[in-house]
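Troubleshooting log. The previous run stalled partway through. Resubmitting the same two chains, unchanged.
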Amino acid sequence: MLQVMLADTAITPDDGSTAGSRTTPATVPVVRRACAAAREMLVRVAADEWNLDMSQLRVEEGAVAHAGKRLVYAHLARSKQLTAASDNTVPRGVPLTKTADWSVLGRTLLKTNAREIVDGTHRYPSDIVRPGMLYGAVLRPPRYGALLDSVDLTRGKELGAVVVRDGEFVGCAAKTSYEARAALEAIRRTARWRTAPHPSSERLGAYLKRRAQRSGGGRRGPRRRESGDVEAALAAAGTIEASYEIPYVQHAPMEPRAAVAEWDQGRLTVWTGTQRPFGVREQLQQAFRLPAGRTRVVVPDTGGGFGGKHTGEVAIEAARLARAADAPVSLRWTRSEEFVWAYFRPAAAFEARAGLSGEKIVAWDFAAYNPGTAGIETPYAVPNVRTQYFPCDAPLREGSYRGIGAVGNNFAREVFMDELAGVSGLDPLAFRLANLDDDRLAAVLRAAASRFGWSQSRPSGQNRGTGIAAGFEKGSYIAICAQVRVEGGATEVERLVSAFECGAILNPRNLQAQVEGCIIQGLGPALDEEIRFADGRLLNGSFTRYPLPRFRDVPPMETVLLDRPDIEPAGAGETPIIAVAPALANAVFAATGRRRRSLPLQPRAN
Amino acid sequence: MARFTIRINREERSTESPPNRPLLEVVREDFGLTGTKYGCGEGQCRACTVLINDLPAVSCLTPVSSVDGKSVTTIEGLSTGDQLTGVQQAFIDMDAAQCGYCIPGMIVEAAALLKRNPRPHRSEILDAMNPHLCRCCGYRNILSSVELAARALEANDA
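Second attempt completed without errors. Output:
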């Protein structure tokens, strides 16, 4: 039996974080090298057992075979030669199977834990149960920026709960989560807070630009890159300009942050859902002044992350409660806590300027405020380019997200490209191709357009329109053609055709699910999602008020996966999202003649 | 506090509990059946779907007192022994799970649908499944799984 262990800092190597679409390019080659070495060792055992030369043997379906004889891996792995193997008996540099000879990679394989998922026995962090375990609940400030003035813990203790106060941290642990919540409620009623002014989500773009950090350096400081002479080229060509904005959005993974913490004689073990197990271990070490050897983080699974689970706040909270209770504690954030207190995908503003000479872009001047730097550079061939990035003093806690900066940067860029196409008089597809010398990006554009029938007569009028957008990020390429119908304030996506390429395809069905799931998830921030806040409170932090894509929102969609066996595979989970919003915004423009420069496209007030 | 007796997954169990405690927490914390998931606590994602007297219900909004003496089926009770139900097998065959957290609720819903309507139209499947949220947005494969299970059911009947 093959067991896949996601992460256990006591057992597994530190392969960094599940982020930046790095798992495929960074982890897959390592796993492949390890598998190749293991295969070599198994074949050697079989060769010894049969007294044959290794070159006479084949491997197939989990066994070593020769002339009708088979020895399965499980049998070979029990040989003394292997059980006594040490690091220095592991062969180095065993050649990997060439892409053309792949028999396992390149094929659809189902998950090894599918059965446990469908019969309900698969354990996510909130499902971990330890002997004597209590359930926790944590007191949250009523507003952003509020500080605890005073609180009376007695009522909570009278209800039989373990109550902890440590500075701003107040939490309860009890035999059931109901009792923990009841104790916390009793305490909450006694809490007095000092509040501070907090901005609102209205006019957020202007707010961010006012609070942009325009000078200074360092990794987190502003950035500027210039090639050619942008000002001169703009002056000669004439300047076209536009500004764009995106709001905050929340990841809202199905399983909110959850952790089970257990102390045993000064050793801490935490089961939690995180994309950064060793990073969370470090956070725990700092919080409790523990050495690495006494701190263990186990990731049973994550229950969804989308860039939202890099941090270990819930692990620290569970560990604080467990230390005070002298018992294991399970803490799972409520949906409301996950909305309000988890970090957000940054809101951002953009200023774009360009100059055209005929169908060519001769100058490109792009300034991004706060989205993150991913995808900030234009993939189009332009002789004079200036790119500026300004981090901003932001009103909410911010962090990673699926595609992160590339989502906003590509939205602004690809809508601006549509506007420039309009000025040039060229069709949006032809304009992009005229300004591209990246064959892979051109290939996905052509593939999506061809499947969509872009060059045939496309539906227009009666509030129907079609739009196209493309993008490159983290080693992979996406192009999307969309058809929409706009009725009142509602935008119905009638058809979505995408083409995606990330090098050699490892697992076609899994790739298709990643790409399509990513695109459907992207419909949310494109059409509906927008975190709103005022006076330090979130106004729509619940599934009732924060609309997310559901079954009926899935449009008719077709996905073309381009296989490039000659190119090392890149990750696929993030890039597809970056073309969704601009393709839809451009389609809305084609349908209505109204240029949309901010998201979401169908904002609603509630 | 009061004593409540529930016939859960064909077995009589009882628990001491405040009457307004959510069934979800009783099932997970008292009975150790963690296949039923918390997603929102507001009945909006349906990850916590169970069957009460064979009808799907959101256990996060169901007070334990309201199921006293009733029969409750969770994802763990859907199959008997090692034999998966057709719906479960279809979810495996279609590789429907991404993170998988929403899947138990989806399966319980789909099983109830196919029991009351073994040959649902696509629109009837959508009506039943639409209230369920999947943040990986694996909706297309989930839908195909339910359709596959329905076809398999039909083939078995024929």
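Takeaways: Residues 74 and 527 of chain A are 52 Å apart (CA to CA). Residues 23-50 of chain A form the longest helix (28 residues).
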